[in-house]
Known about the structure:
This protein is α+β, with helices and mostly antiparallel strands. The chain is 16% helix and 51% strand. It has five helices and 15 strands. Strand 9, helix 4 and strand 10 form a beta-alpha-beta unit. The longest helix has 14 residues, at 2-15.
Amino acid sequence: MKNNMKKKVLSEIRKNNCTLVFFLFVCSMLFSINSNETLHFTIDYLGLTVANVSFIKTDSLLSVKAKSTALTNFFTGYFDNTYKTTIDSFFLPTIYQKSIEQRKYTERSITIYDFYQNIAFFVDTHNDILQQYSIQDETRDFFSALFFCRTLDLEQEYTLKVDAAGKIWLVNITYLKVENLKTSIGEFHTKKIQVTFSPFDETLKMRSDIFTNNFVNSENTLYIWFTDDLNQIPVKTQYSMKRFNVFWNIKEYKVYE
C-alpha cells in the first residue's frame, strides 16, 4: 500500500513541476535542530487538567506535542498527537506533518505547500489518501498562525488564512484590552485578543484530529492573552463553546542559545 502511495505522490509532484529532489528531502528530514524556545501548557476543563501541550520553536521548525492525561483517558479516550511545521521567517509553512493517535482515529500525514501555484499536496500513508487542493496566499496551519500573531501589532485588526484539514478559513483577529494576568511563570501586562473563524468557501474538510476539528470552528470564539512585551508570549487561551470553556494555561517558558 505504501509503495502505491509513493508512486501516486511522485506522479502528482511531477505533474505540478515540483522537483523530485525536494520531495525526497521532505520525506527524509530529521527534525533534530537545536531548539531556541519552548512553551509548556496544561489544557484545563472544569478545573481539571485534561491534557498537556508543548511547543518547541526553532528558526525553521515548529513542533507541537499534545497528550491527554490519565483522567481524560479514563473518561473520554486518549490522544497522543504530534504536529511539525517547517516554517520560514514569516511562519509560512512549507511542510506540515501530523502523527495522530486518538480513540478510533489514526493519521500519518504530510502536507506540502506550493505557494507559487497556490496548491497543497496532502498524503496520509496510514489511511491511503492522496489529495490536492487549492490554498490562498499566506495560508498557515493553526499553530504557525498562532506564532505568526506574535510578530504583529496586536492592537490592530487582522484577517489571516488557515488551512484546517484541506478547508481554508478566514481568521479574524480583534484587539480587546490590556489586562493584568497572573500565571505560573509570573505576573504580566497582557494584550487580550478575540479570534473568530469563518469559512473561505464551501469546500468540505477532510476527516482530522481533535484539535483541528475543534479549534477552527465558526460557532466558537477563541480568546488569547499575549504578554505586552517584545516576546508577546501566549500565556493563556480561552476557547468559548456553547456548553463550556476550555483553557490553555502556560506552565513553563524557556529560551535557549
